[in-house]
Design goal:
This protein is mainly beta and about 190 residues long. It has one domain: Protocatechuate 3,4-Dioxygenase, subunit A, CATH 2.60.130. About 5% of the residues lie in helices and about 25% in strands. It has helices at about 15-20, 135-140, 145, and strands at about 40-45, 55-60, 85-90, 95-100, 115-120, 125-130, 160, 165-170, 170. The strands form two sheets. Strands 1, 4, 7, 8 and 9 form a five-stranded mixed sheet that branches.
Length: about 190
């Protein structure tokens, strides 16, 4: 073989996220005009409990009515269209922040959630998890995915509601209180 092949992101170790993947207003799923914005934020921690300063978080979610958006425009925010997708790089202290809305349930009686993907140093492939809203305890108990997780691990998937209405969701890649991560058939995670 005479030509040199270039390694793909799944074959390298970052940090390379801050170079090309974040984009302008990627963390703003709703603009400042929205009547009910919600701040989703947290810190990404490694197995030793130290913040990771070079991770990137993506979220996908339904709108307030539980409708999964099917409109283009996530990478070119117009300030009005809710596309349900956001991407944010963490800062030097491992913190991330999104401005979004509380998602509604996607089906009757379901627990509302936000899908999360984590990209970070030391991960050769991304990790998938969910952020559940804490309010509807009955829906949380009935949720098929959440009820399949051992009871002592479920709190790692449920955000904490803050006094200002925001949601705090810390992501722990390993160790004590490790976040539950999901595997999907057909996707190398």
């Amino acid at each position: 073989m005479s030509e040199k092949l270039v390694a793909t992101p799944g074959q390298t170790i970052g940090p390379f996220y801050g170079y090309a993947l974040p984009y302008e207003r990627g963390e703003q799923l709703v603009g400042p005009h929205h009547p009910r914005p919600v701040r989703l934020h947290g810190t990404v921690y490694d197995g030793a409990g130290d913040p990771i300063p070079d991770a990137m978080i993506e979220i996908w979610q339904a709108d307030e009515d539980g409708t999964v958006p099917r409109v283009p425009g996530s990478l070119r925010r117009d300030g009005w269209t809710f596309t349900g997708f956001g991407r944010a790089a963490v800062d030097g202290a491992g913190d991330y922040t999104f401005t979004t809305v509380n998602p509604g349930p996607t089906e009757e009686g379901a627990a509302p959630f936000i899908a999360v993907t984590v990209f970070a140093r030391g991960l050769l492939n991304r990790l998938f998890t969910r952020v559940y809203l804490p309010e509807d305890v009955d829906a949380l108990e009935r949720d098929r995915l959440l009820s399949s997780v051992p009871a002592e691990r479920r709190p790692s998937l449920i955000a904490q509601r803050e006094p200002d209405g925001g949601l705090r969701f810390d992501i722990r890649l390993q160790g004590t209180d490790e976040t539950v991560f999901l595997a999907f058939d057909g996707i190398d995670a």
